[in-house]
Specification:
Strand content: under 5%
Shape: globular
Structural class: mainly alpha
Order of helices and strands: HHHHHHHHHHHHHHHEEHHHH
Number of domains: 1
Strand order of the largest sheet: 1-2
Helix content: 55-70%
Number of strands: 2
Number of helices: 19
Length: about 450
């Protein structure tokens, strides 16, 4: 064989045998396919004025389960286009290769080694989780919850007299569970602010998607008696999620002026829904985000940056990374050599991964916001919120997304894609193993 061809072949084999590299390539394939479909005339309404960049923005937003849009979904896309967006949300929410691997597993009864590695990487599985059985739980759990959600939402939309209540129930059920935040209404759910049933159903769907499939599989095994206790990962996720929503709701309800005059029950429901929306990264809103006070905008920004949990449909730095850093802080403050959380020691490798993840995520967010300030004239606070929403795959906006320049939209596209793949994962994918230096170096202390 020609030496050049042999070298190219060897390079491709290394590229496509590394699961860390296959994940971003897989999502890029989804984006390319979805973008091509949305460009078809059958997917666009005749009176729509969306450009190719708007369609690309929508595609990346759907695959990354973000929900930011530059053009209104319901007014721009036909039923076929909305179906494409729904499928992209589903693929993005489940994770790269999950559906394909589930099909292979169902037909053959086993997974090839590469699919197991890619599945474990895409779903951020810790040691001890068998990929095959876990994939079954992921797909069956997802479809079951989304069907139940659609059945529960149908009478809610029918009571409002919408034209296609069943379709809107299916679309919003998938969007909520995948924490995608895509809606068919121009004001998100602002007209449903006082609707207890819709607020409750959407919140349940969003939390079930955001807490992650690890918790779902763990709880299911615990209920069936196959486990005597929940894993540390599940405990961390449930405890941290509860703290975020309780503290966030309390602060939002008591400090946000725009909801102060609402009836007491509606005010607390609105506060809960908005904090839930930011922390799960689902991105729906029942109050105009552009009219919120500076303190509430900062509160929601913090919730968006923290985000959801690993192996789920949401984005952000993840609750487990936050708790790992919290545990490190406590260990240093208490002069302990071990990092512990909930009376369990956290492995050093996971602590280092959390530090790397938060650091790279923060640097990426700062770089994205800085780039936005170079090309946009909107207030810096709005650009910070927009950048955090894009990288966190949230979808909340202060109302400036559609007015961004082509350069600004391109920056958000990059941030949304990075948010879905993960800055750390993409960095690992770009670094060749052969370039890593594992040799020992002299140790020297540094001042902190």
């Amino acid at each position: 064989m020609n030496p050049l061809l042999a070298a190219v072949r060897a390079r491709l084999e290394r590229l496509f045998s590394d699961p860390v590299r296959l994940v971003p390539l897989g999502y890029a394939f989804y984006v390319t396919l979805g973008w091509g479909l949305l460009l078809l005339p059958i997917c666009q309404r005749g009176e729509a004025t969306a450009t190719w960049l708007d369609h690309l923005f929508t595609t990346v937003s759907a695959v990354s389960t973000t929900g930011l849009v530059t053009v209104p979904t319901g007014a721009t896309y036909t039923g076929a286009g909305q179906l494409v967006i729904l499928l992209l949300m589903q693929l993005g929410g489940l994770g790269y290769m999950t559906l394909g691997s589930f099909t292979v597993l169902s037909v053959t009864g086993r997974l090839p080694a590469l699919r197991e590695k890619v599945g474990a990487t895409a779903l951020s599985l810790p040691a001890g989780f068998a990929v095959g059985p876990f994939l079954r739980v992921v797909v069956l759990f997802t479809l079951s919850i989304e069907i139940l959600g659609a059945l529960a939402l149908t009478p809610v939309f029918a009571a409002r007299g919408v034209e296609h209540p069943v379709w809107e129930a299916v679309f919003h059920s998938v969007s909520a569970f995948c924490t995608a935040g895509f809606g068919l209404y121009g004001d998100s759910f602002e007209s449903f602010r006082g609707d207890l049933w819709l607020n409750t159903i959407i919140s349940i769907l969003s939390y079930l998607g955001a807490i992650g499939f690890i918790v779902a599989a763990d709880c299911w095994a615990f209920v069936r008696g196959r486990k005597a206790w929940l894993t540390l990962t599940s405990k961390i996720i449930l405890v941290s999620t509860a703290w975020i929503v309780v503290l966030g709701t309390l602060l939002f309800a008591t400090t946000e002026p725009s909801i102060a005059t609402l009836p007491l029950g509606e005010r607390w429901m609105t506060a809960f829904f908005q904090v839930m929306s930011a922390s799960t990264t689902v991105g729906f809103n029942t109050v105009p985000v552009g009219a919120l006070s500076a303190s509430s905008v900062l509160l929601l920004t913090i919730a968006m940056v923290i985000g959801a949990s690993p192996s789920g449909t949401g984005g952000g730095i993840k609750t487990t990374s936050l708790t790992a850093l919290w545990a490190v802080m406590l260990a240093v403050a208490r002069r302990r050599s071990q990092v512990r959380f909930l009376h369990r020691e956290v492995p050093d490798a996971r602590v280092r991964a959390a530090v790397a993840n938060v650091t790279l995520y923060s640097l990426t967010l700062c770089a994205g916001i800085y780039a936005l300030t170079l090309v946009e004239t909107a207030p810096v606070a709005d650009l910070v919120f927009e950048g955090a929403s894009a990288l966190g795959t949230v979808g909340l906006s202060r109302g400036i997304t559609g007015a961004l320049s082509a350069a600004g939209k391109s920056i958000l596209i990059a941030l949304m894609f990075l948010g879905r793949v993960g800055p750390l994962a993409l960095g690992m994918a770009l670094v060749s193993r052969s370039s890593l230096d594992d040799t020992n170096h002299p140790e020297e202390d540094v001042a902190l």
